[in-house]
Amino acid sequence: MVEELSPQCSAKGCRAPAVWALRWNNPKLHTPDYRKTWLACDDHRESLGGFLDLRGFLREVTPFGAIS
Description:
This protein has about 70 residues and is an alpha+beta fold. It has one helix spanning about 45-55; strands at about 20-25, 35-40, 60-65. The protein is built from one helix and three strands. A three-stranded antiparallel beta sheet has the order 2-1-3, covered by helices on one side. It is globular.
């Protein structure tokens, strides 16, 4: 039997379900339209977003599942 995995928060050690998609890129490495995604629970949305924003990487935050 294969266990189905649900998307989880990207914060280290967190196993909470993903609620937010933090879309980012590193302008030194990626083209302007390229996006990487970290997933976050409600508890880690601000800390993960702050980490990315401090470095100038955060591009947008959307509810998980709303990524187009």
